[in-house]
Amino acid sequence: VESKAWSGRFSEPVAELVKRYTASVGFDHRLAAYDIQGSLAHAHMLQAAGILGAEDWAAIQRGLAMIEQEISDGRFKWSLDLEDVHLNIEKRLTDLIGDAGKRLHTGRSRNDQVATDIRLYLRASIDGLLELIRHAQLAFLDLAEKNADTIMPGFTHLQVAQPVTFGHHLMAYFEMLKRDADRLQDCRKRVNRLPLGAAALAGTSYPIDREMVAKELGFDGVCENSLDAVSDRDFAIEFASCAALIMTHLSRLSEELILWMSPRFGFISIADRFCTGSSIMPQKKNPDVPELIRGKTGRINGHLVALLTLMKSQPLAYNKDNQEDKEPLFDTVDTLANTLTILADMMTGITAKPEAMRAAAAQGFATATDLADYMVKKGLPFRDAHEVVALAVRHAETKGCDLSDLPLAELRGFSDLIEDDVFGVLTLEGSLNSRNHIGGTAPNQVRAAIGRARKLLG
Ligand code: ARG
Fold first, then answer.
1. Where in the cell is it found (predicted)?
2. What is the ipTM of this complex?
């Protein structure tokens, strides 16, 4: 059994189950590259401040480079006895370079070390996720562009409301992802602060240069209170909440894709490579990917709640509770990255079925509002126009036809403001084209929105 970095004070080894219970190396080994990066910056600063000799600094660089290589080759032996990623690497360093390895931890604690590792990990993850969001956005733009004129019913309460274009509907998701990316960018600012120097909780008596370490690691600045630096994980909670919102948006989309793919709607098809069959029903093609995106949203929401709950009763400063931040955080990043990657690909495998969309839009009195607006423009107050059209809809419903199918004479029975130019506004195209302002569903506005979006993405 390897002796632990802190075992001197103890008269007996920890029980086997306790060792397993408290160890984090099984998952925090993922932080190794960031741990090494942080150690190099720390040691460099110790050397520059005259706390560490030039030879020790050289040995530490050499040893950490060897360890990095061992890890990437899969040769590194992780030991549960050594508890976590930090102690595993430090012990190996000492085995490789002797006393210089034992000097690395001068003026540092695992408390500020792990907070630094997590922030470096999260910063890199955010940058990767931003790139994946961008890819997904481009996929939405391509599909929206193809469907800038494709008419579909817009819904409220899942009842046909007014015609929109499929492109317009897709651009709604583009906007959500745009805000999601903004939120991640903003969160990144608070992630990107250096905890090192806080040591265990109170700072350190060595003449350290925190600004130098911050600069070397690409942080925007240092955490300004040592207790806060080692104990808070609000940046991780904030990230998890950004992730939960992204998944919530994608879950809404997934719900729509599932409905639209159902033969009852028949609005779209999804390429076979994103669907699966049934082991009993030979005819089935199921939208597994959107269903799983919807399902995994529950798990991401769970991670957010886990992190909030983890923090809520902790007294300052560091407590071991914080070790529990890693698995939810890692799983959030992994799930989100996989979801965004698959989503971007799946959007390229979606094909609209314009006839079915159009037929649905033509069925639900989708242009009733247009008829009311038509009479308002001829001087009738909106509330009265609303009433007139409601009566006309009731009449059409009993006849089993759409408003545009009623003869002019019958329409005039409801208001003599109605003249034969009314059929221009009762058509789906007339309705769409009349909503011709920024944010409206007129096809030329949808194209303009796509143009602005492409410019934004560069
Ligand atoms: N594995 C620990 C964590 O993830 C590292 C910090 C441990 N610090 C301590 N004093 N036990 O938070």
1. Cytoplasm
2. 0.97
